[in-house]
From TrEMBL, chains A, B:
Domain of life: Bacteria
Role played: Catalyzes the reversible formation of acyl-phosphate (acyl-PO(4)) from acyl-[acyl-carrier-protein] (acyl-ACP). This enzyme utilizes acyl-ACP as fatty acyl donor, but not acyl-CoA.
The protein's annotated pathway: Lipid metabolism; phospholipid metabolism
EC number: 2.3.1.274
Matching Pfam families: FA_synthesis
Subcellular location: Cytoplasm
Keywords: Acyltransferase, Cytoplasm, Lipid biosynthesis, Lipid metabolism, Phospholipid biosynthesis, Phospholipid metabolism, Transferase
Protein name per the record: Phosphate acyltransferase
Reactions it catalyzes: a fatty acyl-[ACP] + phosphate = an acyl phosphate + holo-[ACP]
Assembly description: Homodimer. Probably interacts with PlsY.
Gene: plsX
Recorded family membership: Belongs to the PlsX family.
Length: 356, 356
């Protein structure tokens, strides 16, 4: 008998109550099958109210009561100081203590990242965790990081992110040699700021579990030009939010267009099946799950406004990371990268360039 | 009789020949009416071949011959050194010498910016020019800058961009008190890097020809949350290219969806009128024209791959800036901003904060 997969759920995070988290676990259980167990952290009475109605889930679950909740507008520093017995903190503690394999929360991103960083710490060889997510593109799904954990990143950190992303593409998405691009404002060597140019120099000279493609521009992301897009958390956060916003704007306009006349309404009705397939392909709920990569423990953030289906996607993302042994693979690969002579000399050369 | 509006056209820039530039001028002439004159810079035989077929345009045009062309992959530094007699440089020189009111080119952006900066210089009170453009949003068109001229920008430069954008929204778009947002990765005061926080402090404390709205995030751009979005050239360039890429991706998927079955095809046929109106609303050719704001002369960059209609939009953008006396208004407003005691103290406080 294999060891069960245990997922700690912060039942109180997000814009909703534990109802959504319990329903999400139920959907995830159906997908993941036997061998998965859930720990619900939060107000036991609220959780039980929904959990008791689902016998299969109940049999696979444990409830750990706490009254304390980190609110969605809590500052990360306050959450760290006062959040010791919060549902979020207890769920992360379970991963740290080896009582759970992964934690999923829809709570406050800043508090979750700060707490996960403090409690779980970074993997050896990783200086900072990154937020990564998967996106649909013309050429299939790609992964992008950092999406907001680090406002600025030096070349060495961008290189670590490249390894984090490439290992994800390889072990979770099954791409044997993932291509990695650095997000920049032009493809020529002279473009961009010092950090991105120095990172390009390192990635061009080292061996890592992917192939360095070169610089990519904003429009290369939805084209799916590379399997992994690496950037700092400021640029990545703006990029992903612009993508979401534009997607919503066009969908909105399309709806308006189809409502604008009787003929258009009839047209929409006839094209309904095709439009529905298209909508499914772009469904943000399917792509829900901000992975906190680089930590010594699996932690996934669900969007706070998601419904049960969206939250269950985040649970599946966490389960995939655990089942593919993502963290152990990263630790191996990053050690190999750091042992390369070419890594040291490229980092040293880049630092010389930066300070010049 | 009013003074004619004279527009210098780099007839050799872009992925096409002078044919497109001549056709574009013809379209622009029809829009702008009498009182506009064009100068075509480039190979006279090529230009005349197309120009001679259009009597109305011919009567409003002058051709200045040069064999020299700056190629689309020329490095800006090389273009500056060797481009003295190029069509791009001669067209910019005409604005500098007062022989033309504005220059429009579809040539190499880096070379155009470097040359325009060197030849025209910045307006008094402006340290760096910015590339600005207009975008469609849910709440009408907005303007965003910088889209790539400056990889990094300090708080004072971001403040100047806010003034450049606000004056544009007021005098060209006719918004009496434009709202200005700083692009960031969260709306709270503590979010982002030093430069954007220091710029927020300055904009909150000064009087300028707009109203400071606060931080905006990536998805606020297509929502049209503010009239003017201010950011550094790295982030702005990524943001606009992501928006273009996502828009293309969705349009592409929509086409595929409508082709996927006979019913869907019939649906598309019925909704044709509505979809066409939607397409028109998002037509990138209408929004073509990267304005180089902050220079002592009007310079507009057309996208290199545009057809005549797209290039004519860039000419109309240039004409609008001239006819609304944009540069004189900026010079007045920036002087007023810089004369404020609150501007000095906010800049000084921000610099103290940055170096701490």
């Amino acid at each position: 008998m294999t060891k069960p997969l245990i997922i700690a759920l912060d039942a109180m995070g997000g814009d909703f109550g534990p109802e959504i988290v319990v329903s999400a676990a139920s959907l995830a259980l159906a997908q993941l099958g036997q061998g998965v167990r859930f720990q619900f952290y939060g107000r036991e009475d609220h959780i039980r109210k929904h959990l008791n109605a689902d016998q299969a889930l109940l049999a696979a679950s444990e409830v750990i009561h706490t009254d304390k909740i980190i609110s969605s507008d809590e500052r990360p520093s306050i959450a760290l100081r006062n959040g010791k017995d919060s549902s979020m903190r207890l769920a992360i503690d379970a991963v740290k203590d080896g009582r759970a394999d992964a934690v999923v929360s829809a709570g406050n991103t800043g508090a979750l990242m700060a707490t996960a960083k403090m409690v779980l710490k970074c993997l050896p060889g990783i200086s900072r965790p990154a937020i990564a997510s998967v996106f649909p593109t013309r050429s299939g799904d790609i992964v992008m990081l950092d999406l907001g954990a680090n406002v600025s990143c030096d070349a060495e950190i961008l290189t670590q992110f490249a390894v984090l992303g490439a290992v994800y593409a390889r072990v979770v998405k099954g791409v044997p040699t993932p291509t990695v691009g650095l997000l920049n404002i032009g493809s020529e060597d002279i473009k961009g700021h010092d950090e991105v140019r120095a990172a390009a120099a390192i990635l061009s000279s080292i061996k890592f579990p992917g192939r360095y493609h070169g610089f990519v521009e904003g429009d290369d992301i939805p084209k799916g030009e590379v399997d992994v897009v690496v950037t700092d958390g400021f640029t990545g956060n703006v990029a992903i939010k612009v993508a979401e916003g534009v997607s919503e704007f066009i969908t909105h306009m399309m709806k308006d267009a189809f409502k604008s006349s009787l003929l258009a309404k009839l047209g929409a009705l006839l094209a309904y099946g095709a439009l529905k397939r298209m909508k499914k392909r772009l469904d943000p709920r399917v792509y829900n799950g901000g992975m906190f990569l680089g930590l010594n423990g699996i932690c996934v953030k669900s969007h706070g406004g998601m419904n049960a289906f969206g939250f269950s996607s985040a649970i599946l993302v966490a389960a995939n990371l655990v089942r593919n042994d993502y963290n152990r693979r990263v630790a191996q690969e990053i050690e190999q990268v750091m042992n390369q002579e070419s890594f040291f000399s490229a980092v040293a050369a880049g630092q010389g360039g930066n300070s010049a």
